[in-house]
Design goal:
Number of helices: 11
Distance between the termini: 30 Å
Shape: globular
């Protein structure tokens, strides 16, 4: 049993990680800024702390570490990772291991404009992208925030007359040509050496609020190749998830999140022990590649569940 602190306990990724750790017999300590976050109820111990954007985040997280004694910290929110990097020395002094993606790679992933340019320079297929306007971007279009999460403030535009309206409504907008084909996510684990230890692609059959609610695992060598090229170009290590589209012409990469995905339960159900191996990597133990193999054709249907208190 390992004592593991999980941040972002209110998100789909945080809940999935807490459940996977608990199922494996580990002691889980969940933290979130929302006192009603679902993961706080599912963990062995739950604590409320300020968001990472709050100056009090570091001291609050350090207090939780002192009170609960975790051996490993797993962050599940991209926007928290920079703050966790700042806390690495304090965490290490307290005996807490981490396996955080490089700060430079996180900065690329969070900034959609910067990410698009990195892919372009590396020759990785991705949508034509412009910052703040639609100049030289063929339609139909997607307008989205340069910095944003999920499907918030994202507009699909078919009429050129609506582009200016969509850009005005979107904070720091980027405009992209809308990708075609089937949408997929690949759950990825990259070893400390840069080797791809696991790549589990799954079709996003149905999504709600940017989170996969129906999906199916599959295999595709072309996607494996593009994932490897993208990881190398961005410089990622540890866990991440890549989103894109696949059609008869090939693969188009949309974004990469430097964290576990909300659809993680499907990859776990297909046999890829991503959480357990991430834990081993944080503790500087060798990854067990045989435990990262997965089965294609595993389908997921997600539904609401409830917890009651009082």
């Amino acid at each position: 049993m390992t004592r593991v602190l999980v941040t972002g306990a209110g998100g789909a990724a945080g809940v999935a990680v807490i459940r996977a750790l608990a199922q494996a017999g580990h002691h889980t300590i969940a933290v979130d800024a929302d006192e009603r976050a679902a993961g706080l109820c599912l963990a062995t111990d739950g604590r409320v702390i300020p968001p990472a954007s709050d100056a009090a985040f570091g001291d609050a997280l350090t207090r939780v570490v002192e009170e609960t004694g975790p051996e490993v910290l797993i962050g599940t929110v991209s926007e928290e990772i920079a703050a966790l990097h700042d806390l690495r020395d304090r965490l290490a002094d307290a005996g807490v291991a981490t396996w955080l993606p490089p700060a430079d790679a996180v900065a690329v992933c969070i900034d959609k404009w910067k990410f698009a340019r990195v892919l372009r320079d590396a020759g990785i297929p991705s949508p034509v992208t412009a910052l703040g306007n639609s100049h030289d971007v063929p339609g139909p279009w997607v307008v989205k925030p340069r910095f944003g999460r999920g499907s918030r403030d994202v507009y699909r535009v078919d009429d050129p007359m609506e582009l200016a309206w969509a850009c005005r409504r979107t904070p720091e907008p980027i405009v992209q040509t809308r990708a075609t084909g089937r949408e997929f996510t690949a759950d990825v684990l990259v070893a400390h050496t840069g080797q791809i230890a696991a790549c589990v692609p799954r079709w996003r059959v149905e999504t709600k609020a940017g989170i996969s609610t129906k999906g199916e695992t599959f295999t595709d060598a072309a996607i494996d190749d593009v994932v490897a090229r993208t990881v190398e170009a961005v410089g990622l290590r540890g866990v991440s998830n890549l989103q894109g589209f696949r059609d008869d012409d090939g693969v188009c990469v949309i974004e990469v999140n430097p964290r576990f995905s909300g659809g993680l339960p499907l990859a776990l159900a297909a046999g890829a022990d991503l959480v357990g191996q991430m834990l081993r990597g944080a503790l500087d133990e060798p990854l067990q590649l045989e435990r990262l193999r997965y089965r294609a054709g595993v389908r997921m249907t997600r539904f609401f569940d409830e917890r009651f208190d009082g």
